[in-house]
Design a protein that fits this description.
The protein has one helix at about 5-50. It is mainly α. It has one domain (about 15-50).
């Protein structure tokens, strides 16, 4: 295997790891925003009933 093939292979693995980390962060943010939305809805309902 040539040096170029090794560099491309390791770059591909590195990029795949970066993509996986970004997907995890996006999923975590989506969950966090969902919780914030639930809390906001709860507070809005509480304001309406008070």
């Amino acid at each position: 295997m040539s040096e170029l093939e090794l560099n491309v292979g390791s770059k591909k693995v590195s990029d795949e790891r970066k993509i996986e980390r970004l997907e995890k962060k996006i999923d975590d943010l989506h969950t966090y925003v969902g919780h914030l939305n639930e809390r906001l809805n709860y507070l809005n309902e509480k304001i309406k009933t008070d």
